[in-house]
């Protein structure tokens, strides 16, 4: 790790970076294949549900990672884009009968536009001020929806039960298709992160994250690059929101627009490794099972032991591995190890 | 491990079987899922519910002197060879997604034959959808949002009255008391918090006011858990309605009583949509200001003359939680009682048979601890005989004042005086 502490690490040779990226891609493909085969060995509905949630949060957290990790703009208002996606697809289904497969894309677009609209004023703020502003904007979104009768207000929206159909994302009691839907989502989010990591944008974002002034002096257009990151992040989060709404079958402001959701979206990436390709998936694979299993098997006593375990885990990881769980494997993202502390 | 438990069970069951001269094999337990918020901001509700269901299961399963209620004879489900109901608890932490996952887990792993829940209407929305998909009955003990029973679900049964029933009772009360005293209600002020509870409640009240020719003098929606309600109190005073109809949780309920007092406004009458106003901490927190406040309720703890089972059941509950039954816990006791009766009548632990038996439910109010006429389900699964009551604070405690069949006192009516 000596090079990580050096003030200016020697630039790696291009072919080293290429080799490394090729290795990441191969690992991604292998993992995708393994995850695609995994459901055939899981017949238990509860474990399937666990896998679905892990994949969904891996995707959501990866979406957050694009803006919060690579670009360094810590957003605590992602529940808004998540909610916009969920509400858009559900409203299109209920009012216009548009199948959620298309509603998902519309939800993503609305989420992306939402992120741009929030970014326009908020990106003029920096650091903590930006983070606080996103909290406030998220809360405003929550209040708007809870008081807006057209979208069901506080009563929320129920997705009607229909026959089995991929178009309508309705599979009766079968969970297998949902595993593939969420796997597709997580894989898409990973691919986007992979592509931008190696692109010109990715380098701009990391430059912006490390030092805005230095980036500007190197002709990086700071504001547009933040906006681009926000749009991509908002789009993916919106798609995730649409998937969640269809999966759960019921949404209301408390369950998808609450501020706690913004934390839940950011947490896997933060715990797993901010600004790394594998951090969000790793964080999600650890956090979600711990939270779900402890609640299911310890929570029914009402003693709160499950929450202590969950909280204790977060504290322990933050203390032992401040760079995230990813550092256990010795991998650093191209953005890893620098610019944070 | 399993073998040892089976052997142990057989060893324990054998003397009982001999004593009762039964030739039947030891009956298998009937697992029932109970999904409540056991953690999070409503954990206290979940803890109280846990105790209420435990007490009810003990009454149904245990060997004791018969209680004057349906399933109060003890000894398990008679038509299933004395099978015991076994409760399997799960925590939904007030999150619809978690509620959904827990319902699935209970059905697929614990093989529960029915689920009872769930306090908040948002979690009931997802649990009942899971139950519909898996074809397992869902008994709504305490979810009051009317929309839940309007989704065309076949496996949804709600023993409690819903918010529409509650508000209808309030306006029926106005009519009654107006005719009796000659001082009818001419105007009301609606005052409600902005979550699903307050919104639903006010929508129905607004409609019922119009239907009954009663003017809505003020229609005030406020943010739940507000730090201050002074501005709202001023508006209520300016409106000056005959009756203030609040739908609030407890902290807001205390706050608005104090705020109205500070601006010197004392409405002629207050008729609350239960919730915060029914809690002991409201009566303690509002002190003298609470005197004379009216509230609807689905439970009447003082109706012991017509509902004799209240005393023993409440005593059993007090032994666990160190407090009496309230509106929520009494309805939870009744939900499990009604379900156990249906399983017993079905003579089977198959969900489909239980559903059939539930549709034929006909429980008389006197066989429960509730002041209701009884329990019968319509085609939507809503109990049509769950008649609510109106109670009034008198010397620091609620007493039932309406309807006359279960009332213990006349209402003190201050409108128009």
TrEMBL record, chain A:
Matches recorded under InterPro entries: ABC_transp_permease (IPR001851), LivM-like (IPR043428)
GO terms, molecular function: branched-chain amino acid transmembrane transporter activity
Topology in the lipid bilayer: Multi-pass membrane protein
One annotated Gene Ontology cellular component of this protein: plasma membrane
Pfam families to which the protein is assigned, alphabetical: BPD_transp_2
Keywords attached to this entry: Cell membrane, Membrane, Transmembrane, Transmembrane helix
CDD domains for this protein: TM_PBP1_LivM_like
Keyword check for Zinc: no
Entry's transmembrane regions: 25-42, 48-67, 74-94, 100-120, 127-145, 151-169, 176-196, 227-249, 261-288, 308-330
UniProt subcellular location: Cell membrane
Superkingdom of this protein's organism: Bacteria
Keyword Protein biosynthesis on entry: no
Descriptive protein name: Branched-chain amino acid ABC transporter permease
Originating organism: Lichenibacterium minor
Phylogenetic classification of the source organism: Bacteria, Pseudomonadati, Pseudomonadota, Alphaproteobacteria, Hyphomicrobiales
UniProtKB/TrEMBL annotation, chain B:
Taxonomic superkingdom: Bacteria
Signal peptide: 1-25
Keyword Signal: yes
Gene Ontology biological process: amino acid transport
Residues covered by the Leucine-binding protein domain: 30-386
Record key words, sorted: Amino-acid transport, Signal, Transport
Pfam families cross-referenced by the UniProt entry: Peripla_BP_6 (PF13458)
Coiled coil stretches, renumbered: none
InterPro entries: BCAA_transport, Leu-bd, Peripla_BP_I, TAT_signal
Family (UniProt): Belongs to the leucine-binding protein family.
Name of the molecule in the record: Amino acid ABC transporter substrate-binding protein
């Amino acid at each position: 790790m000596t090079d990580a502490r050096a003030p200016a690490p020697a630039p790696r040779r291009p072919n080293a970076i290429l080799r490394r990226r090729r290795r990441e891609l191969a690992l991604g493909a292998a993992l995708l294949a393994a995850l695609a085969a995994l459901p055939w060995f899981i017949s238990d509905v509860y474990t399937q549900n666990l896998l679905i949630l892990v994949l969904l949060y891996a995707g959501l957290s990866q979406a957050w990672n694009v803006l919060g990790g690579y670009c360094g703009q810590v957003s605590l208002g992602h529940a808004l884009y998540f909610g916009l996606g969920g509400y858009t697809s559900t409203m299109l289904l209920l009012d216009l009968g548009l199948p959620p497969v298309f509603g998902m894309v519309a939800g993503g677009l609305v989420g992306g536009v939402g992120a741009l609209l929030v970014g326009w004023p908020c990106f003029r703020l920096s650091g903590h001020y930006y983070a606080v502003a996103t909290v406030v904007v998220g809360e405003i979104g929550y209040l708007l929806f809870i008081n807006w009768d057209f979208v069901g207000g506080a009563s929320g929206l129920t997705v009607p039960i229909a026959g089995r159909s991929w178009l309508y994302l309705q599979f009766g009691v079968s969970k297998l298709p949902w595993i593939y839907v969420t796997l597709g989502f997580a894989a898409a989010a990973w691919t986007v992160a992979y592509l931008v990591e190696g692109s010109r944008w990715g380098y701009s974002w990391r430059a912006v994250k490390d030092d805005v002034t230095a980036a500007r002096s190197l002709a990086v257009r700071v504001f547009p690059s933040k906006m681009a990151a926000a749009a991509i992040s908002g789009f993916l989060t919106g798609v995730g929101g649409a998937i969640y709404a269809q999966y759960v079958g019921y949404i209301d402001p408390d369950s998808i627009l609450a501020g706690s959701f913004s934390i839940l979206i950011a947490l896997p990436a933060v715990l797993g490794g901010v600004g790394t390709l594998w951090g969000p998936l790793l964080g999600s694979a650890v956090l979600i099972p711990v939270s779900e299993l402890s609640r299911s098997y310890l929570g029914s006593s009402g003693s709160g032991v499950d929450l202590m375990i969950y909280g204790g885990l977060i504290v322990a990881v933050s203390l032992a591995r401040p760079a995230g769980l990813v550092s256990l494997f010795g991998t650093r993202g191209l953005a890893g190890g620098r610019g944070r502390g | 491990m399993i073998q040892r438990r089976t052997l142990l069970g057989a060893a324990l069951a054998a003397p009982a079987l001999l004593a009762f001269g039964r030739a039947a094999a030891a009956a298998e337990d009937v697992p029932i899922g109970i999904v409540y918020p056991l953690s999070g901001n409503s954990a206290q509700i979940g803890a109280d519910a846990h105790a209420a269901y435990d007490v009810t299961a003990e009454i149904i399963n245990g060997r004791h002197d018969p209680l004057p209620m349906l399933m109060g004879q003890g000894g398990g489900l008679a038509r299933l060879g004395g099978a015991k109901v076994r409760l399997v608890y799960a925590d939904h932490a007030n999150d619809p997604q978690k509620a959904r996952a827990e319902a699935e887990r209970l059905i697929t792993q614990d093989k529960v034959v029915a689920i009872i829940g769930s306090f908040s209407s948002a979690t009931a929305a997802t649990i009942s959808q899971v139950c519909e998909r898996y074809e397992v009955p869902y008994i709504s003990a305490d979810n009051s949002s009317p929309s839940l029973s309007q989704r065309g679900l076949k496996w949804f049964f709600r023993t409690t009255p819903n918010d529409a029933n509650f508000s209808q009772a309030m306006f029926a009360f106005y009519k009654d008391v107006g005719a009796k005293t000659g001082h009818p209600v001419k105007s009301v002020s609606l005052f409600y918090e902005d979550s699903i509870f307050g919104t639903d409640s006010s929508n129905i009240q607004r409609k019922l006011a119009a239907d009954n020719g009663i003017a809505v003098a003020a229609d005030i929606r406020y943010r739940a858990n507000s730090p201050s309600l002074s501005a709202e109190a001023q508006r209520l005073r300016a409106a000056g309605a005959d009756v203030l109809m609040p739908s609030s949780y407890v902290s807001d309920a205390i706050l608005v009583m104090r705020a109205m007092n500070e601006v010197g406004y004392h409405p002629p009458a207050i008729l609350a949509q239960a919730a915060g106003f029914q809690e002991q901490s409201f009566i303690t927190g509002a002190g003298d200001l609470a005197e004379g406040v009216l509230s609807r309720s689905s439970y009447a703890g003082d109706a012991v003359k017509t509902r004799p089972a209240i005393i023993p059941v409440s005593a059993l509950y007090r032994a666990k939680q160190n407090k009496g039954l309230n509106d929520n816990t009494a309805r939870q006791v009744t939900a499990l009682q009604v379900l156990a009766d249906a399983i017993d009548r079905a003579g089977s632990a198959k969900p489909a048979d239980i559903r059939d038996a539930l549709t034929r439910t006909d429980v008389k109010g006197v066989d429960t601890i509730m002041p209701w006429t009884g329990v019968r389900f319509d085609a939507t699964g809503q109990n049509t005989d769950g008649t609510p009551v109106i109670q009034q604070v008198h010397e620091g405690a609620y007493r039932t004042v309406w309807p006359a069949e279960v009332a213990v006192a006349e209402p003190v009516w201050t409108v128009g005086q």
